Amino acid sequence: MLRALQETVDYIKRKTENFEPEVGIILGTGLGGLVKEMEVSQQLLYANIPNFPISTLEFHSGKLIFGTLEGKKVVAMQGRLHYYEGYSMQQITFPVRVMKMLGIKNLFVSNAAGSLNPAFKKGDLMIIEDHINLQPDNPLRGINDSDLGPRFPDMSQPYNRELINKATELARSVDIACHKGVYVAVSGPNLETKAEYRYLRIIGADAVGMSTVPEVIVANHMALPVFAVSVLTDEGFPEDLQPFSLEDILETAGRAEPKMTEILKGLIASV
Predict the structure, then answer these.
(1) What per-residue string of b and e applies to 149-172 under the rule 16 or more CB within 10 Å gives b?
(2) Cβ-based burial of 130 (10 A; exposed 0-12, middle 13-18, buried ≥19)
(3) Are 29 and 253 in contact (CB under 8 A)?
(4) pLDDT at residue 30 in the model
(5) Does the keyword Nucleus belong to this entry (predicted)?
(6) Which region holds residue 19: left if phi is over 0, alpha if psi is between -120 and 50, else beta?
(7) Which sequence spans correspond to the domains of the chain?
(8) pLDDT in tens, 1-50
(9) Is it true that domain 2-270 has CATH number 3.40.50.1580?
(10) Can you tell me the distance from the alpha carbon of 89 to that of 215, in angstroms, rounded to the nearest whole number?
(11) What are 128's strand-pairing partners?
(12) What is the C-alpha radius of gyration for the chain, rounded to an integer number of angstroms?
């Protein structure tokens, strides 16, 4: 892996004239608009980057975008990768390792998720405090390379407490409904049944999605502080479960995105 990582990093440095990002951003489903706030200096298609997986989703643009945001040098993934696309966990998390080797000091992650907590409504934001991993593989499975991180990384605090506190204060100061909760990752791509929603709530989750956890595991493996936020795009309440579609999810994500963008911009300015 180290050889592939170095090849990828060397290519990106050549193409971006040795751009050194301070912050890495992973933008989730329907949440690519933060890029509009950036002063973009370079864009690289995933398809043109050596060893880089290609996003197969028609609503993910598949670009690595370099520029400045709130005075910070940033690299943003506009279009993330998912286990349900057929990729291995190592492929899904390869971009996180690349961003770390490019020099980022903090990783900011967003996703679209379904609410499991009746107090958390569609269109609200949820800062992720902890997670439950129900995906069937782990990105750290296999031979460990100690140059990347320890064999058994600690996960007692996978999401950075200081960033969580700052985000909470930012949301409160601008009157944005922003909860804190536990995110559960499932493999997808189907949405959940009533019984599954009930089970996920019972085991302690406040929101469910199909991403984020693999990237967070690898970030912790590489000692990279993480902040993650979910836009709650649907409600998985088994007592009153309503059918919904991808179009519904994207529409809700689009309406809620400006709130998420405001918080992320404030956080990035503070680091």
Answers:
(1) beeebeeeebbbeebbebbeebbe
(2) middle
(3) yes
(4) 66
(5) no
(6) beta
(7) 2-270
(8) 899 999 999 999 999 999 999 999 999 876 777 888 999 999 999 999 99
(9) yes
(10) 9
(11) 181
(12) 18
